[in-house]
Amino acid sequence: MKAFVDFLPLVFFFLVFKMEPRILLLFGREIEVGGIYSATAVLIVSSVVVYGVLWAKHRTLTKGQWLTLGACLVFGSLTLAFHSDTFLKWKTPVVNWILAAVFFGSHFVGDKPIAQRLLASQPIELPARIWARLNAAWVVFFLFCGAANLFVAFTFEKLWVDFKVFGTLGMTLLFMIGQGLYIAKHGTQTDAKPQA
């Protein structure tokens, strides 16, 4: 459910982007709906609302949610302020490369790589070298996703939003399935209940 909630702003962005541009009268003002700029405004507003509700309910957001919200506000605002979609096209690659840097840095900072910390609540036991490989795989995945998004955004501009929504989601699902199979092959199930 949490992953779906995080995905909502992107769904709203996609739906508004795909709308045929039209002018709506809202509170006595004419507002253009449809296309990249109104979709960007919807992305910003829906992100603030979704993460605001999550914050109000749980009094916390994950670091990834803070990163996503911050990037959305910065790159979305620049897109609207300068009326250039170039800024928004850089959002996904930059976020992916920051995540790659964080996962890479976790090999050297702290006692466990981030992949292991993220799955700490799961009843999985893996040797340290396998956790390191999983973490390195995430680094490569984020680097690849960032590069793929950047390539499509500036080479196949008409397909960019479709790729951003469906291509990235598809790559992520396939990668996570691969990670799950790798963990199943090398891991052992532990007792989920803490011992006294």
Spell out the key features of this protein.
mainly alpha; single chain; two-stranded antiparallel ribbon; 2 domains; 196 residues; two-stranded antiparallel sheet; 7 helices
Estimated radius of gyration? 19 Å
Distance between the termini: 31 Å
Tell me the overall shape: elongated
Taken together, the total number of domains comes to 2
Instruction: Describe the main β-sheet briefly.
Output: 2 strands, antiparallel
Percentage of helical residues? over 70%
The number of distinct β-strands equals: 4
Q: Quickly give the structural class.
A: mainly alpha
With helices defined by DSSP (H or I, 4 residues minimum), what is the helix count?
7
Low-confidence stretches: none
User: Numbering strands along the chain, what is their spatial order in the largest sheet?
Assistant: 1-2
Average predicted local confidence, pLDDT: 89
Task: Characterize this entry briefly.
The chain is mainly alpha-helical. It contains seven helices and four strands, in the order H-E-E-H-H-H-H-E-H-H-E.
Describe the structure.
- With 196 residues, this protein is mainly alpha-helical.
- The chain folds into 2 domains: 1-83, no CATH class; 85-190.
- The protein is built from 7 helices and 4 strands.
- The protein has helices spanning 2-18, 36-58, 63-82, 86-105, 114-118, 128-155, 160-186, and strands at residues 22-26, 29-33, 124-125, 188-189.
- The strands form 2 sheets. Strands 1-2 form a two-stranded antiparallel ribbon. The chain has a two-stranded antiparallel ribbon with strand order 3-4.
- A hairpin with a 2-residue loop joins β1 and β2 (29-33).
- α2 packs antiparallel against α3, α3 packs antiparallel against α4 (86-105) and α4 runs antiparallel to α6 (128-155).
- The longest helix has 28 residues, at 128-155.
- The mean pLDDT is 89.
